[in-house]
């Protein structure tokens, strides 16, 4: 569209106002086009189709034509305005327009949020701490013992005694909140490995000493951040009945035990080596993740800028929606779980701002360093996902493309490539202790 003038006003670091003025010739041209279209199809008493005078059409349809002209002018000019001003809105822009008149120019304003402009320096050579990988014999022993316990034969005890730690108790239970049963917090003939922490820990410890046939009410105060949304933040009363007490007969920890895991295991030492390899991989990945967290936080803390609220609100909204879905799967709502959505939104604001800030910093560094996502990067990512999920690459890619997830995937790949670039340029301080401050 020709004859368009724009003026940009910086309202804040992340907000812009674009004033658009379309001159009277373009306005008249659009109005004339609409009247020509209307003339061919308008039915006005006393006139044949296509023969109704313009003045008569203006009397009948003038206000509607002006509304349509205003919509057409905005629709046709809007994309070009954004392209020419080189402003890319985050979220949906707000448009305010003035009244349109046939012989005058037409003005409207676009209010939008954009990525903040900020300087970032000295992100290469950042000093950052990193744990030294240490897979202890104790860690291997614990992992082996868990494997051993998973292959134990569980049998009912003969003696008349109460439950002790490491026993397996067969229980029935139901959870109550404010005197009412909580949906799906119940079980019949449920096997609890006492002391394992695989069930509710307070319930596990609370049934120690009980005998077969006993029952007990156990009160548990759950933290608001507890992983199970059905009980998080609640004081829950569990009614527990002991149906049976079992003990685990563990297999001998010897070469024969190791051989049960396949032809690759000839001895217990082979099993220990495999376990060590798996722990090593997990620890390497954890240490690398924690290193990157420390590094990007250090860089992010060194810069300051205003947060685009549209991104913050979007981040909060996504988290809230995920919570609602988890509640819904358990037949609950946030309200029925005693969680205030408004309070939760405020609690989520700071961590959301921190994540957005780190994302914007990584995006800025990627642009400064010319780091991009290539097709080979995408192929490698799908290959890794295929190996982890057991789904073939073609099916995974089709899923991502059909669900509009490719942009999100590419953003993740770009962030990871940028983090790898920063790690290569960082000064790494190896530490023997576990660094868990992040």
What does this protein structure show overall?
The chain is elongated. The protein has helices spanning 24-41, 54-85, 137-150, 201-206, 255-259, 268-301, 309-329, 341-369, 375-389, 393-402, 406-424, and strands at residues 4-10, 15-22, 94-97, 106-113, 127-131, 153-156, 168-177, 180-193, 215-221, 235-249, 427-431. The chain has three domains: 4-113, 2-Layer Sandwich (Alpha-Beta Plaits), CATH 3.30.70; 153-249, Chitinase A, domain 3 (Roll), CATH 3.10.50; 266-431, Trigger factor, C-terminal domain (Trigger factor, domain 2), CATH 1.10.3120. The protein contains eleven helices and eleven strands. With 438 residues, it is α+β, with helices and mostly antiparallel strands. Strands 6, 7, 8, 9 and 10 form a five-stranded antiparallel β-sheet that branches. A four-stranded antiparallel β-sheet has the order 1-2-4-3.
Write the layout of secondary structure elements.
Blueprint: E1 4-10, E2 15-22, H1 24-41, H2 54-85, E3 94-97, E4 106-113, E5 127-131, H3 137-150, E6 153-156, E7 168-177, E8 180-193, H4 201-206, E9 215-221, E10 235-249, H5 255-259, H6 268-301, H7 309-329, H8 341-369, H9 375-389, H10 393-402, H11 406-424, E11 427-431
Parallel strand pairs: 5-11
Antiparallel strand pairs: 1-2, 2-4, 3-4, 6-10, 7-8, 7-10, 9-10
Helix pairs in contact: 1-2, 3-6, 6-8, 6-11, 7-8, 8-11
């Amino acid at each position: 569209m020709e004859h368009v003038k724009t003026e940009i006003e910086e309202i804040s670091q992340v907000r812009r106002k674009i004033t658009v003025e379309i001159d009277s010739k373009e306005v008249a041209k659009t109005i004339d086009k609409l009247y020509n279209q209307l003339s061919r199809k308008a039915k006005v008493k006393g006139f044949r189709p296509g023969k109704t005078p313009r003045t008569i059409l203006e009397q009948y349809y003038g206000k509607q034509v002006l509304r349509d002209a205003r919509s057409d002018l905005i629709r046709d000019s809007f994309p070009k305005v954004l392209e020419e001003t080189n402003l890319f809105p985050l979220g949906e822009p707000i448009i305010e327009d003035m009244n349109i008149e046939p012989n005058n120019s037409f003005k409207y304003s676009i209010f939008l949020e954009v990525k903040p402009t900020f300087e970032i320096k000295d992100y290469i050579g950042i000093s950052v701490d990193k744990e030294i990988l240490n897979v202890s014999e104790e860690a291997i022993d614990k992992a082996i013992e868990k494997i051993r316990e998973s292959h134990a034969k569980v049998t009912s005890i003969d003696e008349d005694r109460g439950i002790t730690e490491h026993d397996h108790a067969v229980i029935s239970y139901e959870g109550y909140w404010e005197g009412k049963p909580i949906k799906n917090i119940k079980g019949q003939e449920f096997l609890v490995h006492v002391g394992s922490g695989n069930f509710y820990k307070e319930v596990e410890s609370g049934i120690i000493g009980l005998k077969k046939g006993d029952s007990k009410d156990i009160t548990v105060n759950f933290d608001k951040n507890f992983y199970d949304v059905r009980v998080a933040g609640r004081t829950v009363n569990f009614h527990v009945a002991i149906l049976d007490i079992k003990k685990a007969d563990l297999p001998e920890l010897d070469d024969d035990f190791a051989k049960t895991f396949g032809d690759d295991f000839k001895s217990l030492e082979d099993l220990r080596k495999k376990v060590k390899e798996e722990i090593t991989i997990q620890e390497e990945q954890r240490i690398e993740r924690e290193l990157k967290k420390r590094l990007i936080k250090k860089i992010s803390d060194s810069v300051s800028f205003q947060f685009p609220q549209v991104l913050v609100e979007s981040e909060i909204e996504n988290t809230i929606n995920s919570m609602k879905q988890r509640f819904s799967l358990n037949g609950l709502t946030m309200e029925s779980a005693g969680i205030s959505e408004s309070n939760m939104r405020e609690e989520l604001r700071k961590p959301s701002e921190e994540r957005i800030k780190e994302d914007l910093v990584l995006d800025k560094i990627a642009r400064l360093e010319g780091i991009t996502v290539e097709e080979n990067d995408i192929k490698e990512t799908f290959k890794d996902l295929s190996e982890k999920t057991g789904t073939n690459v073609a099916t995974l890619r089709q899923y991502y493309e059909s669900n509009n997830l490719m942009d999100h995937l590419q953003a993740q790949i770009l962030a990871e490539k940028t983090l790898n670039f920063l790690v290569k340029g960082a000064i790494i301080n190896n530490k023997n202790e576990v660094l868990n401050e992040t």
